[in-house]
Amino acid sequence: MSLFQTLTRRAALISVAAVALSASTAFAGDVKIGFLLKTMQEERYKRDRAAFTAKAEELGAEVIFDSANNDELTQLAKFENMLAKGANVIVLQPVNTGTAGSMVSMANSEGVRVVGYDSMLVDGPLDAMVMQDSWAVGRLQGEAMVEWLKAKNGDVAGKIALIQGQPGDSNAIAMSSGVLEIVEANPGLELVTNQAHEGWSSEKAMATAENTLTSNSNEIDAFIANNSGMARGVIAALEAQGLASADKVFVAGSDADLANIQYVAQGKQAVEIWKQIDPLAETAAAVAVALAADPDSAPADLVEVDKVINNGYADVPTIVTPITLVTQDNIDDTIIAGGFYSKEEVYGN
Fold first, then answer.
1. Residues 6+ away with beta carbon under 8 Å from 183
2. What is the C-alpha separation between 341 and 347, in angstroms, rounded?
3. pTM of the predicted model as reported, rounded to 2 decimal places
4. What are residue 271's DSSP bridge partners?
């Protein structure tokens, strides 16, 4: 077993075992856990749903699943429906991290706890949070860009485009801040585009990339995107100009969708961030069951947390799960060794 496999397995076992132990507490009656994602638009969310459901059912809970097509009013209706169906705990990935606090307050008023998932909402009484370090995602992307520029040009200089996700989304803001810290620390970098995109849209990201290329006579050194779908939009714009090569333009994405990992393998995309889904989803499921099993105890007394984050309303007990930088050189030792995709899926037959 490689060092990567050992560390990844250890991290997953520690976080899941810590909460699963508490979740083994006996509870009376049926436990229903709501799992409400903001969208199923990205390929990764099929994995989130499958891993979450399997872990929750293993722990004896019934899962009520839904998604909101990146629409906050739709999500509100789905959330209310989960309350009506008798969910004991709802695990929520908010469409709008700035307004979702009202849903948490609504649930709490009915004695239902809410666990934040993946994106930290602000100004709401979250009971617990399970997430990856989004700032670190952007930091990894930025650091990889710096090393790419050094290898290609001999110095850290060039024109950079930052392709952000949903306007105002806390995850998009955190990832982008990690990138911007790298940009600001290197005065030779010129940020020519810094654009948010409604619905994390691949098509809108492609249009932004096209406009950026046109206004800069195709002289762009790097595009950094907050997720895989938008990175694919960038690659499409580059392909139209004969520039879809990691030797010509640095492109970074995040979520490790299969198409993007294939792009990295093919040399079209420089790097992708692998947000390891199983530890994230399984830990969230185990946290939710633990809270349902002991509704009168404080969350911090039931689960082992990595940090406490103030979201503007409360100090939220938070568990952080692993992320990994994927390059053409380490695909076999990361994505494939970790069982996320097979060699056949990545490289073809």
1. 142, 160, 162, 189, 191
2. 10
3. 0.81
4. 252, 327
Residue 9 half-sphere exposure toward CB, CA atoms < 13 A:
9
Is 138 exposed, middle or buried (CB count within 10 Å of its CB: 0-12, 13-18, 19+)?
A: buried
3-state helix, strand and coil shares in percent for the chain, rounded to the nearest 5:
45, 20, 35
Identify which of 23, 26, 67, 61 has the alpha carbon closest to the alpha carbon of residue 44.
67
Look at the chain and count its residues.
349
* Side chain identity, residue 216: N
Tokens 């995309």 sit on residue: 269
Q: Two tokens at 221? A: 């050194």
* Contact call for residues 290 and 296 (beta carbons, < 8 A): no
Distance CA 292, CA 87 (A): 9
Place of tokens 């499409």: 236
pLDDT, tens digit, 9 for 90 and up, residues 10-66: 344 434 444 444 444 444 458 999 999 999 988 889 999 999 999 999 999 999 999
Residue in the block written with tokens 């024109």: 159
Residue 218 CB contacts under 8 Å (≥ 6 apart), including other chains:
241, 243
